[in-house]
Write a structure and sequence with these properties.
The chain is mostly beta strands and 327 residues long. It is 5% helix and 24% strand. The protein is built from one helix and 25 strands.
């Protein structure tokens, strides 16, 4: 069955309405203030913003948690951040969309850093943690924040070199690092969380080591320059069979990550959510007769696709599987 994407888009539009609504995460304690001030308080903390965007947060205790609807009071014109000794928590959305932020220094007392604190920090290039911090570290001058207790990298940037001792990459760790052009995942990594490389638009190739046993959904969503994907042949959970330029879950024959050069093996039975999302260079894709399911948003923002042929074997097409294709 050949289906023009315009027709498919009409089919899924109603189901997409819910997913397109504005989304905000609210922590148990949130606070908003007058954005644009040059000094103020945030929870137990005091902050000052210099004329050139240097933000210094001092005091004793936790920063407030913020949200998309209640942003941090210092605004987004921040170029550097110093978290001084005494601060124990970096709050939710603390530096969200600070597109000019290039460096962050984390003190010895910080014990909690929220996953979304640095979303939208597209220019972040320098990260350091005080060596006396017992909870987090930046071992080997890696330009990242690592949870010392479980060796999970929780925040990286465009200059990060992942240490060999890291065993997990946390959800959203490199999200929006648009200057990241290449990254080597060490052999000891066993887990890649959700949305890890979402929006890393300059990454061209990725190699998955043998030890990786878990890859979260949307991990490579929006990696629009991706052209090469390989999995170590000794990996028992995932594979790149037939040099397909994709990551396939071996036990279920589910393709979980693809790119513009993917050639889908005929034995693939399912395409996972966001598998090809943000691959504008993908101009054609051929599905095998073993395919039964196409996950939601699987081909989101694949603007080079104009039509696809859906095999009779397909019984499920997820919400928004082909949105934002040309119509």
């Amino acid at each position: 069955m050949k289906m023009l994407l315009k027709s498919l888009a009409v089919f899924v539009t109603a189901a997409m309405i819910i997913t397109m609504l504005p989304f905000a995460v609210y922590a148990a304690e949130t606070k908003s203030s007058d954005v644009g001030a040059s000094s103020g308080t945030s929870g137990d903390c005091t902050w000052t913003l210099g004329d050139s965007g240097e933000l210094v947060i001092s005091g004793s205790g936790r920063m407030y948690n913020y949200s998309l609807r209640g942003p941090a009071p210092w605004g987004t014109d921040v170029t550097s951040v110093v978290i001084e000794s005494g601060i124990t928590q970096i709050g939710s959305y603390a530096f969200y969309d600070c597109v000019d932020l290039t460096s962050i220094v984390v003190s010895d007392t910080v014990m909690n850093i929220t996953t979304n604190a640095f979303y939208g920090c597209v220019s972040l290039a320098s990260i350091s943690v005080d060596p006396d911090n017992p909870t987090f570290d930046s071992r080997d001058n890696c330009n990242a924040i690592i949870n010392s207790g479980n060796n999970t990298l929780i925040r990286g940037c465009e200059t990060t070199v992942i240490p060999q001792s890291v065993t997990s990459i946390g959800s959203g760790a490199f999200r929006d690092s648009v200057g990241l052009t290449n990254i080597t995942i060490p052999e000891g990594v066993t887990e890649i969380g959700w949305d890890v490389f979402w929006g890393c638009s300059e990454i061209e190739e990725i190699a998955i080591p043998a030890a990786v046993a878990s890859i979260g959904g949307g991990s490579f969503r929006g990696c629009s320059s991706m052209t090469g994907i390989t999995v170590d042949p000794d990996n028992t959970v995932y594979d790149s069979r037939n040099d397909c330029n994709a990551i396939i879950q071996t036990s279920t024959n589910t393709l979980i990550v693809g790119c513009e050069n993917t050639v889908m093996p005929p034995d693939v039975e399912s395409i996972y959510e966001y598998a090809f999302a943000g691959s504008p260079g993908l101009t054609e894709i051929e599905f095998g007769d073993s395919l039964t399911e196409i996950g939601f948003h699987a081909f989101e923002n694949c603007t080079g696709l104009s039509e696809v042929t859906i095999p009779n074997s397909v019984t499920t097409i997820g919400t928004g599987a082909f949105p934002a294709a040309p119509v």
